[in-house]
Amino acid sequence: LVASLEQVDETYIMGKPDGVQRGLVGEIISRFEKKGFKLTGLKLFQCPQDLAEEHYKDLKGKSFFPKLIEYIVSGPVVCMAWEGVGVVAAARKLIGATNPLQAEPGTIRGDLAVQTGRNVVHGSDSPENGKREIALWFKEGELCQWTPAQAPWLR
Ligand code: RTP
């Protein structure tokens, strides 16, 4: 009851090219599904250069920016939109620290990655960016609004 009164947010989660190449797509999706969030968008997608640059525009001045863009467009990514109470912060926790060597065991990066430049997955860092990024990566008809079958233990 308490949770149902709170704000439902949405976040953009992306399996990065290394996650796809290493066969971790199912594992990544599974972590968010098992937690109890609702999937509202999902596609495999070859990201063009301009979209990668727009997505990471806040990092444009960083020395690693060119390598980051090269990495993101190096192969298909898995684009996901997830919805739920507190989903943005919870997803960041499930993903773990940016540097996988500092990410806690039990997190996606802590369990599955070693290098910052190959850290398997992206998650929006605020509800505002969640909305912005979902609008950036998905066309309207690609998102599904649906009501899960009654399962009050997940609310
Ligand atoms: P993300 O946006 O991918 O979820 O990652 P984040 O918030 O944890 O980290 P952020 O600082 O926004 O950086 C975005 C991505 O850039 C790559 N990166 N490389 N020093 C480096 O070489 C470096 N620092 C960041 C990572 O792929 C990081 O996830």
UniProtKB/TrEMBL annotation:
Q: Which UniProt keywords apply?
A: ATP-binding, Kinase, Nucleotide-binding, Transferase
Provide the binding site for ATP: 16, 64, 92, 98, 109, 119
Q: Where is the active site?
A: 122 (pros-phosphohistidine intermediate)
- Ranges in coiled-coil conformation: none
Limits of the Nucleoside diphosphate kinase-like domain = 8-145
Reported cofactor(s): Mg(2+)
Question: What's its EC?
Answer: 2.7.4.6
Q: Which residues of the full protein are shown?
A: 75 to 229 of 230
- The species this protein belongs to is Malus baccata
Domain of life, per UniProt, equals: Eukaryota
Q: Does the keyword Transferase apply?
A: yes
* GO-annotated molecular function: ATP binding; nucleoside diphosphate kinase activity
In Swiss-Prot or TrEMBL terms, this protein is called Nucleoside diphosphate kinase
> What family classification does the UniProt entry report for this protein?
Belongs to the NDK family.
Mind listing the GO biological process terms from this record? CTP biosynthetic process; GTP biosynthetic process; response to hydrogen peroxide; UTP biosynthetic process
Main EC class the enzyme belongs to: transferase
Q: Which reaction does it catalyse?
A: a 2'-deoxyribonucleoside 5'-diphosphate + ATP = a 2'-deoxyribonucleoside 5'-triphosphate + ADP; a ribonucleoside 5'-diphosphate + ATP = a ribonucleoside 5'-triphosphate + ADP
